[in-house]
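Thread amino acids onto this structure.
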């Protein structure tokens, strides 16, 4: 996505830079660039299993607390 911005007649450099930064922010070019800049690592099999086991453990604790009438709020 190319953006062409030219300096207007009698426009100061600081005003031009401000206008350019505003156009870039509104266009979303920086957001797209930042998304593609970092790579996310996929979980391996062991990590997936540990994550699933943790979720099950937390769900069981929540269900137990609900049955016992204990508040779920963190202190």
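Threaded sequence (75 positions):
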């Amino acid at each position: 996505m190319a953006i062409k911005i030219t300096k207007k007649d009698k426009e100061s450099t600081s005003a031009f830079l401000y206008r350019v930064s505003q156009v870039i922010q509104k266009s979303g070019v920086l957001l797209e660039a930042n998304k593609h800049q970092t790579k996310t690592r996929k979980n391996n099999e062991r990590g997936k299993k540990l994550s699933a086991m943790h979720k099950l453990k937390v769900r069981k604790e929540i269900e137990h607390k609900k049955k016992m009438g204990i508040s779920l709020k963190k202190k």
